[in-house]
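Postdoc handover notes: sequence design on the structure in folder B. Input tokens:
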């Protein structure tokens, strides 16, 4: 089912430097975050008197040419790389975008999804003379910040946090200030880095190393940081203290393995998931292979714990995007054919354990199993380093609808039959939680439980804003 949607899983990046031009570093920072969104990209910079923007559909390397980077003058800047679903693949929805309000011009980039955007939109329309240009919840959030009440950006952000419900990791910029915000639940990641006299905000810590910056810390849930010529200031929204709900899928799949999440490197958590999976679902086999790239650490963990050799049996064409986020069934099926090749001599006549990080619709998984059988695998035992996904996400991940989620419709035995595996085992939620360091508290795990960290109306329509706009 392909429905137009504002939901997205994106990457945000920002730099404030006292003296250096920032566009090139933002370019490389975004390049390191390309896995978080491949449909559009943009950079906005400020030279203190003017704001410059380059924004378009496509991969980072397609959007920016050398002359664009040269045009993006200034020592403050933000960048964004975006994923959207069918229909929202519009240039007007690319970020960062600039809005104007009572607080002046604001350049804005967002990762997440606001669940009360319809209500916020009505509020803005009733209070200000506003005309919306895009179909995104991000524009609503941007205009809320551009018109927020408060004596400074820390107060204005606190004002907005009282009104907004949902997931939002933000980087924003005025002509002289860089602002970073992580929502009170901390659903999407955001971290702080430092490079000489420059401060950096990034969705993931891995991007910091790519520009030669050092990781300082994760931005806390409910925290706003404001960076300007006076240095860095921070405030924490008062109700955010206890409830931390980082998306556990960042640990399982989304974030790069070399990114720091909740105090641990995602790679280490994923290896532990694989080890726990081997203890929970052992099976006699000849070789462990992983679905590249995200499931490789878990397959190494499975191999380590089970003492069964690990080998590369599936080779991924790295220039094809993730099938998980292709917008429709036809492209998803085509994607699998162009994405994987099997090393026949690794799998032929062997009992294979295939480790993947998740099963969403099941379509991709069954096709990969078919490829292994065609290559001569004697048995294929599927092991999944996360629990069955039974509920959709309302916090910025467009994974599937209730109807499309295979585990919402079938039990494990029937999923095994559908995907064509000799056996199938999912990591339990308990063991998943033991595999991730949770020093900050809880994770959002709603897609495995149906229990969301903030109340979601059961009849909540993810697309209500898009529909109302089309009328
Ligand atoms: S519902 Fe699932 S994918 Fe969405 S934020 Fe929660 S854990 Fe992440």
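Designed sequence:
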């Amino acid at each position: 089912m392909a429905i137009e949607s504002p939901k997205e899983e994106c990457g945000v990046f920002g730099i404030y430097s006292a003296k250096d031009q920032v566009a090139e570093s933002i370019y490389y920072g975004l390049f390191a975050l390309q896995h978080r969104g491949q449909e559009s990209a943009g950079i906005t910079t400020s030279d203190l008197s003017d704001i410059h923007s380059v924004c378009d559909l496509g991969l980072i390397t397609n959007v920016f040419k050398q002359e664009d980077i040269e045009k993006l003058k200034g020592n403050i800047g933000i960048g964004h790389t975006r994923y959207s679903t069918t229909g929202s693949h519009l240039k007007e929805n690319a970020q960062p975008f600039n809005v104007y309000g009572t607080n002046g011009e604001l350049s804005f980039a967002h990762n997440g999804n606001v669940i009360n955007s319809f209500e916020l939109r009505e509020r803005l329309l009733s209070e200000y003379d506003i005309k919306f240009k895009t179909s995104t919840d991000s524009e609503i959030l941007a205009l809320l910040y551009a018109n927020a009440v408060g004596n400074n950006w820390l107060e204005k952000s606190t004002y907005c946090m009282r009104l907004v419900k949902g997931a939002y990791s933000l980087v924003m910029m005025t002509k002289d200030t860089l602002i970073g915000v992580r929502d009170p639940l901390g659903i999407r990641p955001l971290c702080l880095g430092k490079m000489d006299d420059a401060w950096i905000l990034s969705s993931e810590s891995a991007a910091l190393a790519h520009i030669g910056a050092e990781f300082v810390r994760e931005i806390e849930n409910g925290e706003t940081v404001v960076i300007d010529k006076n240095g860095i200031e921070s405030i924490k929204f008062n109700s955010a203290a206890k409830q931390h709900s980082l998306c556990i899928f960042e640990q399982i799949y989304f974030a790069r393995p070399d990114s720091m999440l909740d105090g641990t490197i995602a790679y280490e958590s994923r290896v532990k998931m694989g080890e726990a999976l081997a203890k929970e679902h052992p099976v006699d086999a000849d070789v462990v292979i992983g679905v590249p790239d995200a499931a490789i650490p878990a397959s190494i963990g499975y191999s380590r714990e089970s003492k069964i050799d690990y080998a590369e049996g599936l080779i991924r064409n790295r220039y094809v995007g993730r099938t998980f986020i292709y917008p429709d069934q036809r492209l998803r099926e085509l994607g699998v054919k162009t994405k994987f090749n099997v090393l026949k001599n690794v799998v032929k006549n062997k009992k294979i354990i295939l480790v993947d990080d998740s099963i969403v619709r099941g379509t991709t998984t069954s096709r990969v199993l078919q490829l292994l059988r065609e290559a001569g695998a004697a048995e294929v035992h599927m092991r999944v380093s996360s629990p069955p996904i039974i509920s959709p996400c309302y916090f910025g991940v467009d994974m599937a609808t209730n109807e499309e989620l295979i585990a919402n419709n079938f039990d494990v035995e029937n999923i095994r039959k559908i995907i064509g595996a000799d056996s199938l085992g999912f990591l339990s939620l308990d063991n998943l939680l033991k595999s991730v360091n949770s020093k900050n508290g809880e994770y959002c795990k709603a897609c495995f439980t149906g229990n969301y960290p903030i109340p979601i109306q059961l009849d909540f329509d993810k697309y209500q804003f898009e529909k109302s706009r089309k009328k």
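Context for whoever picks this up: Residues 187, 247-249, 393, 395, 397, 444-447 surround iron/sulfur cluster (CB under 6 Å). Don't rerun without checking with the PI first.
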